[in-house]
Amino acid sequence: MRYDPDVPQIPHAALTTEDARMLHRMQDRGERVYLRLTMEAQTYPDVESRNVIAEIRGREFPDEVVVLGGHIDSWDVGQGAMDDGGGTVAAWEAVRLMHVLGMRPRRTVRVVLWTNEENGLRGGNAYRDNYADQLDKHVLAIESDGGVFKPSGFGFTGSDEAFEIVQQIGSLLDRIEAGTINRGGGGADIGPIMREGVPGAGLQVDGSKYFWFHHSHADTIDKLDPEEMARCVAAMAVLAYVVADLPEPLPR
Questions:
Q1: What is the pLDDT of residue 140?
Q2: Directed axis angle between helix 226-245 and helix 86-100, to 10°?
Q3: Terminus of the chain with fewer CB atoms < 10 Å: N or C?
Q4: Quick check: helix, strand or coil at residue 9?
Q5: 52-245: what CATH class?
């Protein structure tokens, strides 16, 4: 929730889909619904946290980087499986598979599990600041932050030339119905470096159920479908690896 500076701020809360439907059924039965909402949320002082980073060094251009990841913090309720534990695991697994298969692209592939996306974006900002003098060598940033449901492709933000190249790469994912590349995409964690000119891509998935679980007690690991998650891993791995192994970097 965001407020205009001149608007009085009021508390707000979100109900899970299960609770909302229960209240709806009660109303449909003609019952008068009374709701008492006790909110105990607090804001605590900042504490130190860290991004988790691993990489496969490029065999020809190790100073050029494709970065991908998701964020490791979530709301206190639930487990944050869809937002964004699944995204972090998918990104990590994509890079782990490259390592296991002995696939070492021309450029460095770096996976980052970003901290503090939910209430400050300090992980993304710290990465930008720490690598400020190297961002001109960042070829692409990829993020998964919409749940690990069945993927359809990526939203891409970059030059027209780069968009055409990414579209061609997307065709490699047509067999798993994840090859659609749309204009406009990215993510909160990679937003700080995208604003410095780094091209960005956001994994796009079937979002029809995302807000059933988002920021609620229902966001637990049992909601993950192994096959759909495996497709997310494949999509991220293919895009990251192929871009990292292109003869020339994506044009800005």
A1: 98
A2: 60
A3: N
A4: coil
A5: alpha beta
